[in-house]
Amino acid sequence: MVKLSVVQGRLSSEVAGKYQHFPIHNWRNEFYEAKKLGFDGIEWIVSDFSNPIFDPIIQKEIINLVNDSGVQIPSISLDLLMPKTLDRFSRDEFYWIFDNINLIAKKIKLKRVSIPVEETCGIRDPNTAMAVKNKLSEILKYNSKNTYLLAIETDMAPVALHSFLSDKSLKNLGVLMDLGNAAAYGYKIADYFDLLPEKIYSLHIKDRLLGIGPSVPLGEGSGEFNYLKSGIKGLTNLQDITLQTYRTSEKYLKDLELAKEFIHRLLFTN
Fold first, then answer.
1. Among 77, 179, 237, 263, which lies 20 to 30 A Cα-Cα from 231?
2. Quick check: 135 and 86 in contact, CB under 8 A?
């Protein structure tokens, strides 16, 4: 059975008013809060180069937290790459990121690392598309000996994404698909599922309103959850499902509990 995870930070109060940021003040406790709510894992968020997961000493503490709580880290999301397109990051920056992740990857049984190709770092012209494709190809080659998967989270339309990933140099690259973002942009998730059934490695679960609208509680936006219930069966390489759901600043734990109940009823009960 596919495991259910939560994005790091949803179990903590906001950092400096940011909706999603590494919870520097509470990341250790999040493992135990996740266990209480019945989550299998936490998707680790890397918001900047000072993230604790890059520190070999703190990595030992992270491993102990995973073992003690029983809550895994199946995936890492490289949010620190959001400010600019991938081609504008240096080779040294990427090598440093992955060299440090690779020190801990096997010890926590890491399954996936996600790279953003959306919003401020999204592809908006053919030249950028080629440059980003070359950078991703380079990263895949550098990381070819590791057992975890690499995926992109992107705002490309289904047909454009299918074309982008058809390049032979990206044959081992998958997709982290965000259902809420697809709904906000007016994309049909059936188009992604039909065109890329073997490429979708993970699902981010949230709900948003059509027209690039805000995040809302599950079931109150434009998310196609009825289709998800049946369509998910065709995703042959799906590794995990991760809640990145609506939150308030005061009742974030209750918000998450309600979201988990919604998705559990939808996907994990008959």
1. 77
2. yes
CA 166 vs CA 98, 125, 151, 170, 172: distances in Å:
25, 18, 14, 7, 10
Give residue 23's Cα distance to chain centre: 16
Distance CA 54, CA 137 (A): 23
User: Is the pTM for the entire model greater than 0.70?
Assistant: yes
CATH number reported for the structural domain that contains residue 50 in this entry? 3.20.20.150
Domain hosting 223: range is 3-267
Tell me, what DSSP letter sits at residue 81? G
C-alpha to C-alpha distance for 59 and 210, rounded to whole angstroms: 40
Q: How many domains does the chain have?
A: 1
Q: How far are the Cα atoms of 61, 109, 264 from residue 54, in angstroms, in the given order?
A: 12, 16, 33
